[in-house]
Amino acid sequence: MKAKIVLLPGDGIGPEVVAVALSLLELVANNFGHQFTMEEHLIGGCAIDAVQTPLPKKTLSACLEADAVLLGAVGGPKWDDPRAKVRPEQGLLGLRKGMALFANLRPIQPHPDVLSASPLKAEKLKGVDFVVVRELTGGIYFGEPSKRHQVNGQTQALDTMIYNQYEIERVAHLAFKLAQTRGNKLTSVDKSNVLESSRLWRETVTKVALVYPDVDFDNLLVDAAAMHLLTRPASFDVILTANLFGDILTDEASILTGSLGNLPSASLGDNMNTSGKPRGVFEPIHGSAPDIAGKGIANPVGAILSAALLLRHSLGLEEEANAIENVINQTLAAGYRTADIAKPGQDPLKTDALRKIIESQFIKTNAPIT
Ligand code: IPM
Ligand code: MG
User: Fold this and answer.
1) Which ligand 1 atom lies nearest to the CA of residue 75?
2) pTM of the predicted model, to two decimals?
3) Which atom from ligand 1 is nearest to the alpha carbon of 104?
4) CA of 285 to the centre of ligand 2 (A)
5) pLDDT band at residue 370 under the 50/70/90 scheme
6) Which residues are catalytic, by number?
7) 153 Cα to the center of ligand 2, angstroms
8) Cα 310-313-317 angle, rounded to 5 deg
9) CATH classification number, 119-257, choose in 2.60.40.10, 3.40.718.10, 3.40.50.970, 3.40.50.2300
10) Residues of CATH 3.40.718.10 domain(s) within the chain?
11) How far is the CA of 286 from the centre of ligand 1 (A)?
């Protein structure tokens, strides 16, 4: 097949991990006989430096025309002044909104050979396999007003949490449909004992649940969910939640897999590409990690698995996605590790050394189509 993929390496370790994911996509194209056209664009801090805006028009229009987008990370201390008018993160939020990517899928599945990298006891991690569906274009991330002003001589800052019924319904339908392809279980997480927007969330999701009587459905308050993620992580299948809660809970959940560096994500909407699949943005859930940027030691697994999700969700290439995931599983099972998940006393691999191992394993198991 032919596909156009936009690469947005971004800041910090973003370019380092996107380069590895790209080399895997090139191998997939070569060995499975596809033609992927890659186009690189600016986003985040590097875009602010180059053209004074975190989301140049050119970037957004290229993404809207592409079949899929692979993103690294945005942000860093250089652009972190709390009084700055423009921030790298606005680029990412503008991209999500501009592409109407209302659902963010974050699969959490600890690798059986990496359990010791997590601070949780191995027996708690057995059987953990869930997906968080985070609403991505609404809630407190986008509500207006969001500002700072003077009240009685004091500075006041405010943000607004808004949810419209249709925003809750569309992400809920997507999450219930996803549950039907997995363990048929869905837990909706909110703060309905305090927040009005959460009460609408709970009421709406509970109504949508009636359309999916085969899916075992329950509601959980977000504070309890934060606890249950650690006490009974294996009991979850699909967790559906709002933008801010999903952001927080997925960083927590990443620890079940040993490192934030291992986790991919897919951001999807209902805007279809030339293959008739949702045009998505695929990115590791980790940030730009400025403390290790440029050292060549970043874990590329989250970015590589994001490329696998890109193949599956936006290009419909299930076999190719599985091929990448299998190679990552084999590589981790064989004990190859970057520093973030290395075993005690193990000499960790640098990003490039791990890339070479993953590539040669891929070539060994996926002979080119001749
Ligand atoms: C994430 C990140 C972003 C978010 C930041 C970088 C704006 O933390 O994708 O989880 O808060 O959504
Ligand atoms: Mg986050």
Assistant:
1) 6
2) 0.95
3) 9
4) 6
5) low
6) 141, 191, 223, 247, 251
7) 34
8) 80
9) 3.40.718.10
10) 1-107+275-370, 119-257
11) 8
